[in-house]
Specification:
Blueprint: H1 5-21, E1 24-25, E2 28-35, H2 50-59, E3 65-67, E4 73-75, E5 86-89, E6 95-100, H3 115-124, H4 128-133, H5 147-152, E7 155-158, E8 164-166, E9 180-184, E10 187-192, H6 213-216, E11 220-224, E12 229-233, H7 237-242, H8 246-253, E13 271-277, E14 280-285, E15 302-307, H9 313-319, E16 324-328, H10 331-339, E17 343-349, E18 352-358, H11 368-375, H12 381-387, E19 392-393, H13 404-407, H14 410-416, H15 424-432, E20 468-474, H16 478-490, E21 497-503, H17 505-514, E22 527-533, H18 541-544, H19 561-570, H20 578-595, E23 598-611, E24 614-615, E25 633-634
């Protein structure tokens, strides 16, 4: 009996629909996680979204130091280390941590993981060669003995301003890193430079993850002749002819279309990457994964990350189209999840906030008065009422409500910080102190009484340049819509010419993170709506110090001497100096609030909504579902 072509198509359609709708595929358990779209950077070195970070959590593993659900840092002696590292301080004050690995760690390919894989992580991610192909900077060993010399070599002289110059063709190949030692197949050590001690998060300075030498640098070796570990070029003449330098090799193995950046194929996390789709990815269990730091292994066969419409994300979990969406903050969605018997809504306080980021080095927002004026042109309560539905609060600085040091200084900060709220008079007063205080002729003072919503009466500086501000938001995003509406309603009242545009989230991140490196004639945007979350090792030095201008660490290009001083001092405390840490924290937040490189819009209670087909999810502010994957199981 033959089936008609139409019937065959119909049967195939029904079968495919069944596969997509259920939590099983070919008898495999599948967890389908909805997200607004991945940008596709799956290794360290490039700015990424929180959703890309979840993929990184799933495919990378075996860090020597891990952050627990409670936000504590502990050595992984369950899966990775044979024992906690020993430490010793020499007569110069340098402190050496010596690590011994367990000898049964494997990559997903089945090849063994050894000390050279951890040493390579420090060497490569501390190298100028890596810096040349990545965006985040080469900071892995920045606190270790010999880092500066390893990173850039000996100075070749000084320039006309008296600053040291260095060989532009310098490479770390064959150069030993004094503070990094390869001591055996499963043993290595890292030495913190005395001048970097004390440090409030000391153990973080010597944390390491493994990366595979063959995947990143085929033909190279890791050696140590007693003066420090180094990268040795052991390639054939033909290999060198094809890729003369280490940068050429990395451009192929990392930055090419199918390189490690976009499709890491040698990994050691609980899952391995199978394929990527438009804005999504499919992962399957890594058969060689040992355990996490708690001695646990995952049981779900596959994890599918699927790009979905954020407007209907919770509805899709209730309907079973996807199984999990995370970080839900809209009140109406949370209420819908709580009312449904098909899903569970697990909540936790956010360790961060939603924000309006501003470019501190470009156009009108390079002036602090303009940034403060923007703060006075927002009614931030709109986000609490219309967007969060009561599941949130206002913050006035770079902190999250779950952080211990914020909780213990909350009252002090409340009295010290400016609570930016809608006040057109204050906005105009700030702008009158900026260079944008004139009419179009560049001499007549701007008069707010002349401004209307339609007459295009804008502010100008003495050079006749208009106070024009461009905002970039994301599509299908209620925050973008609320921001655009607020700015359109209020900016004209202070003489600001405003435009807004929506793009895919990945495009927004590229503009934001790379803005300070773009030629001025290619830069367009001054404002971006984003959100940030903090890890437990809260160190604002790496986000706001002017040293990081031009990198993704300081994408807003903040350059403030007080911020530099405070953040540098804050990190030099011993881990026992909690009171001093709080004092610096208050001082830092106070100055930050004054120069306002970002406008915090809201901090909120997060809800992860999971279909009741699954159980066991227990997320915290520092422990995402992707960290908790070993505890998520199919409900019986």
């Amino acid at each position: 009996m033959k089936l008609s072509k139409k019937l065959i198509v119909f049967v195939l359609f029904i079968l495919s629909a069944f596969v997509l709708a259920g939590c099983k595929k070919d008898d495999k358990t599948v967890l389908k996680v909805g997200n607004p779209g991945l940008s596709g950077d799956f290794i360290n070195g490039w700015g990424n979204s929180a959703y890309d970070a979840e993929v990184k959590d799933l495919i990378h593993g075996y860090a020597t130091l891990v952050e627990t659900e409670a936000g504590e840092f502990v050595w992984d002696t369950a899966a990775v280390l044979a024992n906690a590292p020993t430490d010793a301080t020499d007569t110069d004050g340098n402190k050496t941590y010596t690590f011994k690995l367990q000898n049964d760690l494997k990559w997903n390919t089945g090849e063994k993981i050894t000390a050279e894989d951890y040493v390579l992580y420090i060497l490569l991610y501390s190298s100028k060669d890596w810096d040349s192909i990545s965006e985040d900077g080469a900071l892995a060993g920045i606190d270790l003995v010999g880092y500066d010399l390893f990173y850039q070599g000996e100075s070749t002289g000084v320039d006309e301003k008296g600053k040291p110059t260095y060989d532009p063709d310098y490479s770390v190949v064959e150069v030993p890193f004094e503070g990094v030692r390869l001591l055996g197949e499963y043993e290595f050590s890292l030495t913190i430079k005395a001048e970097n001690l004390p440090y409030f998060y000391e153990t973080v300075m010597v944390s390491a993850n493994p990366i595979d030498l063959e995947a990143y640098l085929p033909g190279f070796e890791i050696k140590d002749d007693g003066e420090g570990a180094y990268i040795h070029d052991a390639r054939t003449a033909k290999d060198i002819e094809e890729c003369p330098t280490i940068i050429d090799v990395l451009s192929t193995t990392v930055n090419s279309r199918f390189g490690q950046r976009y499709f890491p194929n040698v990994t050691c996390g609980p899952y391995q990457l199978v394929s990527t789709t438009y804005g999504g990815a499919i992962l399957e269990l890594n058969p060689n994964f040992k355990t996490n730091y708690e001695g646990k292994k995952p049981t779900i066969d596959e994890v599918h990350l699927i790009k979905i419409n954020q407007d209907t994300d919770v509805d899709q979990v209730i309907a079973g189209t996807v199984d999990l969406v995370t970080g839900v903050i809209e009140g109406e969605k949370i209420d819908a999840a709580k009312a449904s018997k098909k899903v569970t809504a697990a909540s936790y306080m956010r360790n961060g906030y939603g924000l309006l980021a501003m470019s501190s080095d470009f156009g009108p927002t390079s002036e602090v008065e303009v940034r403060r004026a923007i703060g006075y042109l927002f009614d931030r309560n709109v986000f609490l009422n219309e967007f969060l539905g009561g599941y949130g609060s206002l913050v006035n600085g770079p902190y999250g409500e779950a952080q211990w040091f914020y909780k213990e200084t909350k009252d002090e900060l409340a009295s010290a910080l400016t609570n930016y709220t809608l006040d057109v008079n204050k906005a105009n007063a700030e702008l009158d102190k900026s260079t944008y205080k004139f009419e179009v002729n560049g001499t007549t003072p701007f008069d707010p009484a002349k401004a209307t919503a339609t007459n295009n009466y804008f502010r100008y500086n003495a050079e006749g340049e208009a106070l024009k501000i461009n905002h970039l938001g994301t599509t299908d995003n209620k925050v973008t819509d609320l921001i655009g509406l607020q700015l359109e309603q209020n900016f004209w009242k202070a003489g600001i010419d405003f435009t807004t545009k929506q793009s895919e989230f990945a495009d927004l991140l590229k503009n934001y993170y790379n803005g300070s490196n773009l030629p001025e004639n290619e830069r367009v945007y001054h404002l971006y709506n984003l959100a940030t979350n903090y890890y437990s090792n809260y160190d604002p030095y790496y986000s706001w110090h002017s040293k990081w201008i031009g990198t993704t660490n300081n994408p807003g290009a903040v350059n403030d001497a007080e911020i530099d001083r405070i953040t540098a001092a804050m990190r030099k405390l011993d881990s026992t100096q909690k009171d001093e840490f709080k004092e610096y924290f208050v001082e830092f937040v106070d100055r930050w609030n004054e120069i306002l490189p970002q406008l915090p819009l809201y901090s909120n209670e997060y809800f992860d909504v999971i279909n009741n087909k699954f159980k066991g999810l227990e997320a915290t502010p520092v422990w995402r579902w992707s960290n908790d994957i070993c505890d998520i199981k199919v409900a019986k």
